[in-house]
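ESCALATION

Customer reports they have been waiting on this structure for their group meeting. Please prioritize. Original submission:
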Amino acid sequence: MIPSLIPPAHQRAAAALASTCGLVAACGILAACGSAAAPGAAPAQSQASTPASGSDGSASAPVSPAASTVAASTPAAPAGPAGCLSSGLQAQLGASQGTAGTIYQVIVLTNTSASSCTLYGYPGVSFVTSQGGSQVGAPATRNPAVTATQLTLVPGGKANALLAVHDAGAYPDCQLTGVDWLRIYPPGDFGSLYVQYKAQTCANTSNDILTVTAVSAGAGSAS
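Update from on-call: job pushed to the front of the queue and completed.
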């Protein structure tokens, strides 16, 4: 055997150092294995939830805590009167006034049913040949002069809309024709009401002879 050229004291130090390095390396490998996470993995504190089993052994779907909170805190919508239908309304002509080639005619809607109902928005208005007859000319366009608000009509309660009838003779391309009836659709309903109204209009639909406001409370006025 060839004697070592490293002094005994240095040999002991080298052995200790090698032992320490081996231990550090091992710890480093263990630390790397324990801390590395797969890409996209959930954080360590997250745990997979196991659906609860029903009495028949089937798994029931987990309920989201957020969804439970929203459902518990959302109050039910209060019940209110239904919309007014043509079958429970009566249409009449109210006050009228003529100025500068336009006649302003109030249309009054009365709740003839035994229950309260609501109206909101604009009625549909057009000239027709007769009750249940064909439309003549263009329907009324909307006049934004009155802000639309929801009205509750008790039995016998009234609402009104202001109809403007412009002079048909003032339109150069007007196909002038006489009419005797107005057809009125209450706001939100496809049922119709009829009132007699004698006037002249344009048979062609390119001219806006009629304009109408949103409904407002009461019998109204033409001024």
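Sent to customer with the following note: Helices lie at 8-35, 65-73.
Escalation resolved.
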